[in-house]
């Protein structure tokens, strides 16, 4: 019985501590770890986008021919 009560009390305090810790770490304020990661990301975000052009669109739409695709890109941002 004592272990059940002790476990419940620890669970309540631990959950509150975890919530408080997470809240203090995710706020963007000057000097926090999150702010430094936001200001100078540890990795450079890169997005590569490829676009495909259907070169035989009329034949594909009207005659049911297999589409011929031309790859354009990558467009890197």
Automatic annotation (TrEMBL):
It holds the Pfam family CD36. GO terms for cellular component: caveola; cytoplasm. Keywords: Cell membrane, Disulfide bond, Glycoprotein, Membrane, Receptor, Transmembrane, Transmembrane helix. It is a multi-pass membrane protein. It comes from the Eukaryota. Transmembrane segments: none annotated. The keyword Protease does not apply. It is found in: Cell membrane; Membrane, Caveola. InterPro entries: CD36_fam. GO terms for molecular function: scavenger receptor activity. Belongs to the CD36 family. This is Scavenger receptor class B member 1.
């Amino acid at each position: 019985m004592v272990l059940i009560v002790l476990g419940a009390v620890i669970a309540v305090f631990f959950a509150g501590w975890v919530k408080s810790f997470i809240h203090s770490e995710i706020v963007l304020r000057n000097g926090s770890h999150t702010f430094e990661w936001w200001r100078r990301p540890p990795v450079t975000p890169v997005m590569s986008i490829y676009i495909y052009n259907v070169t035989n669109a009329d034949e594909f739409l009207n005659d049911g021919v297999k589409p011929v695709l031309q790859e354009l890109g990558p467009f890197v941002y």
